[in-house]
Amino acid sequence: MELLQFTCLLLFISLRCLTGFGQQCGGNQWQCDDGACLPLSWHCDGNGDCLDGSDEMACPCPRGQVACMTGAPGCVSTSAVCDGQRQCSDGSDEFNCPENQGCLQGDWRCRNKICIPKDQYCNGANDCVDNSDETCDRCGPMALRCPGGACLTEEERCDGKLHCSDGSDEPSTCGRTCSEENGGCSHSCVDQPWGALCSCPKGHRLSAHGASCQDVDECSLPYGPCMHFCVNTPGSFYCHCRDGFQLQGTTYCYAKGNYTKFLTAKKGTIGFLNLKTLRFESIQSIGYDPLALAFDFSRSSFYWADDQGNIYKAKEQRSRILYHGQYGVRSLVCDWLTGQLYWTNQKTRSIHVGAADGSGFATVLAKSIDPLELVLLPIESLLFWINKGPGDKITLERSGMDGLKQESLVVLTAQSPQSLTLDVTARRLYWISDFKKSIETVRVDGSGRYSFREFFKRPAQSLAVFERWFYWTDEKGLWRSPQDRPNQKTFIQRTTLPVLEAYHERQQPKAQSACVKSGCQLCLPTLDLPAGFTCTCPDDKLLMADGSCEYPRFAYATSTTLNLFELKGKELIKTLLLTTDDVMESFDIDWTGDWVYWANSTGHVMRWSLNTGQSETVPTLRPACVVSVDQKMRNLYWLSCDEVCVGVTNMDQGYPRRLYQSGSEVKDVYLDWQRGRLYLLEAGWILSIRLPGGNPRKVLRLEGHVTGRIVLDLKSNTLLWNTEGDDLKIMSLLKSQTHLAGKEWNVPGSIMAAHAPLLVSLFNDVITVWDRRDRRRVHDVPVGPGIVRVIVALMDVKEVPPAQPVCTSPSVMCRGSTLCISQTQLCDTLRDCPDGFDEESCITKCPNGGEFRCKDRRTCIERSLVCDGRSHCHDGSDEVGCQTIAAPTSQTAPLKCRMGSRLCKDGRECVLH
């Protein structure tokens, strides 16, 4: 045997599937069996989004269909819901379909498909542009408009019938005159034919009953008078500003410090346009016009993307390319708290996050989205973008910066939205509607929708908002206008500026980020986790249990060689670890002890030290042809060559023992050392057995033909295999259910290994690594004939403990393990924990002869406590078999019943109650 080449690998054992640390999912999310969180709408949507397939298990309908209501069996296509045609026998596919189909709740749908807030319906303004919201009954000077839009004649007021939903057509002043007690009015009064008409002073409005005046809360208006904070007072209000701003006048907030500049591009350079001097100050020369610009104020860094697929960074007059091949970038923004970049890609219909040093980028969202403009609010961990949906639907979306908790803020269908921007200090989003020729705005929580109608005379190109000003460009040049006086437009300069970003330190206020001490290579702020962040890795790396990222590595063996390959981006690095004269039938590696184990063609098991080159024979009860290492306890599990005996060899003590004797044939074994289970493939069944041994439990009967091997994915807790036609099947070991990954998943050959999200197959002497997240072929590795086995090499000489392992009550955790067992398994004479922890401290005899030993052998109690109606033993055995009837001691003594029983009326016996 010869050691040809070995490089010490610093790899980490993944003891627990982590997407963050101790992750729990939020209310609008669904948790996969492997712990990952998905939007609730992805559950049973026909696409397997959990890597263990658990989101598509136990679904009532096939993919792409939804169930009819209870009592009406059957499923209908999702496209049939609310399409105007009854498909379910009870018509439930057309139940609860809103009149404003395509709009959000609380919106009204115009004839041209534009959605407006309901309070804009029949408000006297053409909010729909086609005037369909104002096709209401005309109201004369003496008529009354109800909140629902209906117009009442003068004769319908005070006729004793309620016509308006708020009762305003039947005020308490009906039939009264101003000459008598002011007509009941709290303020001004005017006589009308139907009674007394009350009116109110400025800052107040008339109540629904028409007599008293209520304070108008100016601060609750959709677009209030204050720029930042508003405090309502009786009949008025006052404003105050965020830190770093000062109040001018009564409502304006102006930034302290530097004068406002604009980051923009002009004639092959990126630079600042100084609004005070109107001079352009060059920062960096560029080769191509930028599609998008971003800046990091505190780090003095600038970023841009061009149509050549490159994303650049400039600092101190030096620039470099961070990322290549990003064709289709539409928008680029910076998380100024962490320095990370986010961008949208129209070509791949996805949102990405990338490290500011160019070390890697990851996909944040790529399902059911088509993002256009993007903005960030890192101080609230929020992400906003304009999204193209199915058909012609367009929405303004919001999510956490990890892509979770996604929701629609505004429906923008038919409005031609563009140039989304954020006033950070005001917490308001703004955008241009080309169709309405307006500037639209909404608060970051979705409230305060407002439209600056007919704002533009010509098509606008870019929009920026800072302090009290709107800035935009059109074919003539750069303009500005105060927000409270939108008609006072001022021309600033004749120029062509394709992109425009307000550059000021107050646009990126300082704050603490949960990501600062995370240790993640890429950190995603989140809205749900107590830690405030979740770790992710560049798309070409895998997340380790400590939050670090590693390039994927795999070990594979032929009959005489052991090899390692690493996928370092697009680079493939191969290493030959050892050669042997033995003929290897199976192998595994103890990464903690640096031992290679293999079974040879004669059934002998050998091990060889990667450190010293020492080789040893490993004892087994029978010749063994399959071996697998417990990475925690460092024991070796094996399957005999005659396929009837499964055993384990304790490597510390050097003795083997039998775990299971089969009555037929065991074709393969799959070791889940993390959870203390061994899975067997026997007679078409997947069986499960505890590592200490015992009777196996049937988990699943395999149906159909299995092509090649079945493999265990420890990270997602699944078994995977190919069926006829190369269809990938996934079995959740938690649910004991299978899921077909889908016809679009076609993996030729045999599945050889898996570690979520990666999958490894072998076909025609080529190992292929796949990414299960997007079904992408990551790399093909020619390996030659005679491949014995492939394993995932994601382990290290040091062990990373699981993050806060918890067993749900009434289970307990085994010592030194993440294995949970039921309390009923304690002291049951069976060794359920790997180290026998569950059978320790068990009482064989009570120290005092008069005591009662509980059945679970964990506690002794006084005899007087037995059958007293209260359980003192953990298992309740002191209250089992107790008499419920107490016989009287004499004819005269009154009968007393024990606790839990009551005396019958005749006083002769006790019964349970």
From TrEMBL:
Disulfide bonds join C25-C37, C32-C50, C44-C59, C82-C97, C103-C115, C110-C128, C139-C151, C146-C164, C827-C842, C867-C882. One of its GO terms (molecular function) is hormone binding. It is a single-pass membrane protein. This is EGF-like domain-containing protein. Its main location: membrane. One of its GO terms (biological process) is epithelial cell differentiation. It holds the Pfam family Ldl_recept_a. Transmembrane segments: none annotated. The lineage of its organism: Eukaryota, Metazoa, Chordata, Craniata, Vertebrata. One of its GO terms (cellular component) is apical plasma membrane. Keywords: Disulfide bond, EGF-like domain, Endocytosis, Glycoprotein, Membrane, Receptor, Repeat, Signal, Transmembrane, Transmembrane helix. Residues 215-254 form the EGF-like domain. PROSITE patterns: ASX_HYDROXYL (PS00010), EGF_2 (PS01186), EGF_3 (PS50026), EGF_CA (PS01187), LDLRA_1 (PS01209), LDLRA_2 (PS50068). It is found in: Membrane. Residues 1-22 form the signal peptide. The keyword Protease does not apply. Coiled coil: none annotated.
